[in-house]
Write a structure and sequence with these properties.
Order of helices and strands: HEHEEHEHEHEHHHEEEHHEEEEEEEE
Shape: elongated
CATH superfamily of the largest domain: Creatinase/methionine aminopeptidase superfamily
Distance between the termini: 41 Å
CATH class of the largest domain: Alpha Beta
Radius of gyration: 23 Å
Helix content: 25-40%
Structural class: alpha+beta
Strand content: 15-25%
Number of strands: 17
CATH topology of the largest domain: Creatine Amidinohydrolase
Number of helices: 10
Number of domains: 2
Length: 397
Amino acid sequence: MKNTPKEEIEARIRQLQSKLAQREIDAAIIVQMIDLFYFTGSCQRGHLIIPADGEACYLVTKSFSRAQRESPLANIKLQKSFTELPALLKAVTPKAKRIGMELDVLPVNIFLRYQQAFPGLEIVDISMEIKKMRMCKSPYEISIIKKGAELSRKMFEVVPLILKADQREIEFAAEVERFLRRHGHQGGVRMRQFNQEVFFGHIMSGENITCASFFDGPTGGPGLSPAYPQNAGWEKIKAGKPVLVDYVTAFEGYNVDCTRVFHLGEPAEELQKAHHAALQIQSEIVKAGKPGVPCSELYNMACKMAADFGYEESFMGNGPDKAAFIGHGVGLELDELPVLTAKHSYPLEEGMVFALEPKIVLPGVGVAGVENTVLVTANGLEKLTLYPEEITIITGS
């Protein structure tokens, strides 16, 4: 089992300490599982206290032995109860007056419990500092993401071999998932946003591809019941219909998001025309996406091109079900920064990794377009997911 290198963890902690000092915050208390992993190398439940100056302390409630094996931190202690936390915090930062926590994900009831535990201390939100830190990936993280991208490519190469007419969507999805799991997919795909979740991704066929859902994206799918209303359903895949494979490869903690369109037989001209338009939009975004270019500029460019092609109403969804972005950051969570949307004007930076997904939703037909995980380099955008982007036509099914 591979552990995060000590120097990687130490660099992350130093960076957060610098941000704490800038905001005059005496210490951070990290509790969310993925942030714990990012700063400790372990997902074991507990609290990570990072003082603005000094050694971090990982307080573990369960499993202490695993945390010791997995984390390179020197100061790891067993926390037997919540009531010990105030004294342990005081031992790390005796004069603390302001502490930072991840208030974007901390439930209110638990936040109130921390308030009661720390009377006289001010609790402030440091979630944006953490999300911006995680937005730019280190060479170590990029090396893992590239391995995930290679697994994604291999998965798409298998699709034409297992995709058959008259099999149910869920049966096809199970075969794809079986391949991914056997080759290292961790199973869980983590998301930070409240009430957002996904299991592997979206596999649908025909009109099911255009079935909207609560999921914050251009596609959803019917799912198996209203209790989990997304992804593959019970419908049979029919000859002459498109099949969308939009699956996340979660490898060694990091997510890679990629979409390709497959077709059992010759695609309709309407679908091919829209797909070509989506590929052109992607091509122009890739050309323009260099460090310093605002995310909003790329989003507006994509929307203008879609309108010029005649797809203004169907770009990234239809009506109120439209997704308000063309790209989203990926990393330890599927919904990281940056987000390529009209509301985010911050510039691209070297080391950002995001999924670029210009898609055109055609009611009664399917979805055209692709999704690629890309890396922002000094020279521009580098595609990490490399399976061919044209509609893959499967004959004899």
